[in-house]
C-alpha cells in the first residue's frame, strides 16, 4: 500500500515537471514572437498597380504613404497604352527624382502581364474616354474589351488576395466586367470608386454650414457613379462643441437638401470637366487613396464611408450589381451598414440608380456577345 502511494506521488511529480516545462516553452515562444514584432519594424513592400492617365496625380500620394500609411513601403506598377510609353517613362524618371523614402521600386510598362505580376492592390484608372460624337454603347464596348483583358491578367498574375478599385467610367459596370472575367478574385475584393462623390457631399455640407469638413460624417452615396447617384444626408451628422447634431436639423432647409444639394453632387464631375476642360484628377486621386486606406486600415469607429461593392441584396438592391453602399471596414474587409431607415423619397432615388445599373449591365453583356 505504501509503495503504491510512493509510486503515485512520483508520477504526479513527473507530471508537474512536464507541465512546468511545457508552460515555460509556451511562455518563451510567446515572448520571442512579441519581441520579434518590435524588432521587425520594416514591413514587406506592397505592390500597387495604377493604370492610365490620372496615375500622374495619384502616384506621388501613394509613394508618400497617403494610401497605405507612413510605415508602409511600396513598389509601384504603372501600366499605360503603347502610344503613352514615352510619357510613362517620364513619370518613372520623376518618381526616381522625387526620392520618396517609401518607394522601393517602379515597374513602368505597356505589357499588362508584367504590370499585374504579384500586385496586392490594383487601382484601375485607365479606360476609354467618351469622345465627341460617340454613343454610350461605343464607349461601353471599348471599355468592356479593355476590362476583360485586364481582368484576365489580374486573374492569372496578381497576388491571390489582390484588392481592386475601379475608377474609370462607367466605374460600377467596368468593375462588374472585371469581376466576371477574374472569377478567382473574391467578389469582395472588387470595388469601384464612389468615395469621390462621398467627399464631394461632405464638402458641400461643410461649405453650406461653414463647418470643418472633418466634422461632417456619415453621408451616403447610393448606387451608380453617374448623374443618377443618390447623395443621402438623412443619417449624416456634424460634430459640434455641444455634441453630434443631425445635418438636416442644422441645414434646416429640406428643399435645398432634396434638390440643389443632390444635383450639385451628381453633376460635380461634369462641372469640373467644364471648368478645367479635363476630368477631375487631384480629387479623384485623393478619394482613391481614401478608399484604399480605409479598406486596408479600417474606418474610424462610428464612421462609415461609401464604396461601390458587390450587392448581396441589402436594402432590396438586386444581388450581383456593383452598387454604392455605406460601409465600415475592419481588418481589410468591408461590410455594408445594415438597418438604416429608408424613407419613400430615398427609396425612389435608390431604385432609380439601381435601374440605371441594370441597364448598363445588359448593355455591357450585349457588347460582350
Ligand atoms: C468625376 O466624377 O469627376 C468623373 O467621373 C467625371 C468623368 O466623367 O470623368
Strand order of the largest sheet: 3-2-1-4-5-6
Distance between the termini: 89 Å
Global Rg? 25 Å
- Average predicted confidence as pLDDT: 92
| Uncertain stretches | none
The biggest sheet amounts to: 6 strands, parallel
Q: Give every kind of bound small molecule, once each.
A: (2S)-2-hydroxybutanedioic acid
Shape: globular
Helix content: 40-55%
Q: SSE order, as H and E?
A: HEHEHEHEHEHEHEEEEEHHHHEEEH
Structural class: alpha/beta
Number of strands: 14
Number of helices: 12
In terms of DSSP E residues, the strand content is: 15-25%
What does this structure look like?
The protein has 369 residues and is an alpha/beta fold. It is built from twelve helices and 14 strands. It has helices spanning 2-39, 55-63, 85-97, 112-116, 136-157, 171-181, 195-209, 247-251, 254-258, 260-276, 282-297, 344-368; strands at 46-51, 74-79, 103-109, 121-124, 163-166, 190-192, 216-217, 220-222, 230-232, 237-240, 243-246, 305-310, 322-330, 333-336. The strands form four sheets. It has a six-stranded parallel β-sheet with strand order 3-2-1-4-5-6. Helix 2 packs across helix 11, helix 5 crosses helix 6 (171-181) and helix 7 packs across helix 10. The mean pLDDT is 92. It binds (2S)-2-hydroxybutanedioic acid (LMR). (2S)-2-hydroxybutanedioic acid (LMR) binds next to helix 10.
